[in-house]
Amino acid sequence: MKFTLDSTASTHVIRAYAPGRINVNDRLLSASFVISSATLVENWAPQRAADISLETLEVALALEPEILVIGTGAQLYFLDARLAAEIQRRGIGLEVLDTAAACRTYNVLVSENRKVAAALLMI
């Protein structure tokens, strides 16, 4: 599926999503990553939703987002309640979605100039 979003050249936006690949601006990614409007961290360690932990999310949390969007792959996988509670305790909103929905949500929030980070699994 293709996405269209007006943006400046310095803003990271998701241009297209397909299982196993995501286009960020003009770059094709095929491994899990973390993204914000200004930062792209490739090769994020988790390869499946069960691998997501507070430790692996620190790279996204270090970006100090208002909202953290987590894409759990082809299917929605809920995070451990303690992990979700810790993120919310830090004052960060949390959205956990399948990766396709997470890509769309990230783009909408970026277009609204919200301080958002997304951690996206490629599976």
Provide a descriptive summary of the structure in words:
The chain has one domain: Hypothetical Protein Mth938, Chain: A (3-Layer(aba) Sandwich), CATH 3.40.1230.10. A five-stranded mixed beta sheet has the order 5-4-8-6-7, with helices on both faces. Strands 1-2-3 form a three-stranded antiparallel beta sheet, with helices on one face. The longest helix is centred in the last third of the chain and has 13 residues, at about 100-110. Helices cover about 25% and strands about 25% of the residues. With about 120 residues, the chain is of the alpha/beta class. The protein contains three helices and eight strands. The radius of gyration is 13 Å and the shape is globular. A hairpin with a 2-residue loop joins β2 (about 20-25) and β3 (about 25-30).
Concise overview:
By secondary structure, this protein is of the alpha/beta class. The chain has helices at residues 54-61, 81-89, 99-111, and strands spanning 14-18, 21-24, 27-29, 33-36, 40-41, 67-71, 93-97, 116-120.
